Each structure stands twice: as structure tokens, then as C-alpha cells.
Amino acid sequence: MINNKSKLPYYTQLKEWILQQIDNEILLKGEKIPSEMDLAQQHGISRPTVRQAIGELVQEGYLIKKRGLGTFVSSPIITGNANVFTTFAEGMRASGLTDQAKLIHGQIIQASDKLAEELAIAPGSNVFKIVRLRLANDEPLAIRTSFIPCHLYPELLEEDLEGVPLYDLLQRKGHVAMGSSQSFQAVGALAEEAELLQVDTGTPMILWNGVAHNERNMPIEKYKALYLGSRFRFTIEQVGKNQAGTMHEELMPIGPIHF
User: Fold this and answer.
1) Alpha carbon 53 to its chain's center
2) DSSP string, 84-139
3) CA nearest 37: which of 26, 27, 51?
């Protein structure tokens, strides 16, 4: 409860109270917390103060807002090593979660100049665009958009793109994913993305852009992976300039990667 004599701001005290409720399993994972109005009345503080406390807990990953439903206790944050190219499925298994893929749509498009350059193909070449929603324990966590040259697997859209990993399919054609170059940035969820992930528009996301290549360093996929920011934390190891080349060699995957 709020202590009027404490030097801590009211919103900080409320944050600590909510965290204690979570730690003591009074508020359980996936459970809806009281409304801003109820918390304000219960603790004798203003709604803006409650809103600040809840906002920071959402940002820190302890709570999650679901559009039109309210605010809920979040599942544990999923951590990953950004130095090593691992797949969504591998990350979920490492966290003890069951991963799933839901196909949003698959189509053939013509490669723009930029996409053609990234995939080392001629501009205007046919490319598969495959958008899948990635879930863990039935919770939508990420959206992955894949661009794959059609000549690598002409009948790809006829395959089970929900039940069979994409890289398993490509491997059937002799294209084994061995690594990728990638970058990441913070973005806000657009309306369509927010609807798929069941969050509010503008919710913080982590956007990964990358190009996967085979053992001959030939591009086999351009991808855009959008992760729910409140549910993921990635670690990055940095080294001195003199060690960068050696470190890069050590961190490159040496075996097949599967989706």
C-alpha cells in the first residue's frame, strides 16, 4: 500500500506493490490486473500516477496491454544471444515453450531493385513473399516476412508452410542455411501488425532485418522479423577493434539452421 511518509514517489511505490503481488503469485501469469480506476481508488492516488506505474511495468516486460481487454501479467521475458543466428523455434524450445506458425499469406511478387540486390537476382525476378505469425504456447509473439527467390523452390507455396520449417523445405533442394547478416531497430507496431499480435497500435517492437545465405554464401532468404518488445531481450557481446575479426569467426554458426 502507499506510504505517505515515504520518500519514494507514489508511482514507484505502486510499481513495487504490483511486483510483490506478482512475486507472491497473488497476481498470476496471464491474469488481468485491476483497472486504473480501481487501483487509484484502492491506493488513494491519481489515475495519471497509476498510469505511469503501469506504463513502466509494461515497458520493463512485467505487464502486457491487450487491445480492448486490459492489462495482464506478462509471461517471463524470452532471452536470446544476438551474436548467433538462431531461429524462433530454437529460441522457444530453449525457453521451454512450444512454438507454432500460422500462415497469414503467401504470394509471388516481382523483386524491386533493392530486394533483387539483397537476394543477388535480377530486378523483376519472381520472389515468394510469405508472412507467418509466430506463437509460443498459443501467444502471438512475432511476425516474420520471408522473401525467397522462386527458382530455389518453384512449388514452395504448395507445401505445408505452417507444419514444416521453411529451411527444412529449402534443404530438400540442397539449400542449407548456414548464417546471416542482420540488423535490428526499435519500431512501433502498425495497425495491421498490432491486430495480429493483439496489442495496441504503436506498441514497442524489435525489428530484425536480415539475409540468410547457404554454405556457398549465396542468399536464399531476405527476412523481416518483428518481435513483441515486452517479451524479448537480446544480448550482444562487444569486443575491442583488434579482436573483432577473431570474434566474428568464433560466432559464425557452423551447422544447419532450421525454421
Assistant:
1) 24
2) S---HHHHHHHTT--EEEEEEEEEEEEPPHHHHHHHTS-TT-EEEEEEEEEEETTE
3) 51
Q: Which residue's entry shows cell 548464417?
A: 179
- The residues that bridge with 126 in the sheet, in sequence order, are 110
Q: Name the phi and psi angles at 116, rounded to 5.
A: -60, -40
Closest CA to 173 of 214, 145, 131: 214
Dump pLDDT digits (tens) for 198-238: 888 898 888 989 899 998 889 999 999 898 877 766 666 66
Q: Specify the CATH number of the domain 78-251.
A: 3.40.1410.10
With contact defined as beta carbons under 8 Å apart, do 172 and 150 qualify?
A: no
What are the residue ranges spanned by the domains of the chain? 10-73, 78-251
CATH class of 10-73: mainly alpha
What are the cell numbers at 199?
Answer: 496489442
User: Taking a C-beta distance cutoff of 8 angstroms, is the pair 146, 128 a contact?
Assistant: yes
Residue 187 · residue 108 · CB < 8 Å: no
Backbone phi and psi for residue 221, each to the nearest 5 degrees, phi listed first: -160, 135
Contact between residue 221 and residue 177 where contact means Cβ atoms under 8 Å apart: yes
User: What is the value of pTM for the model shown?
Assistant: 0.65
Cell numbers for 232, please give them.
524479448
Please list, in sequence order, all residues whose beta carbon lies within 8 angstroms of the beta carbon of residue 173, skipping any fewer than 6 positions away. Answer: 152, 153
Kindly report the number of other CB atoms within 10 A of residue 97's CB atom.
19
Residue 146's DSSP bridge partners are 130, 223
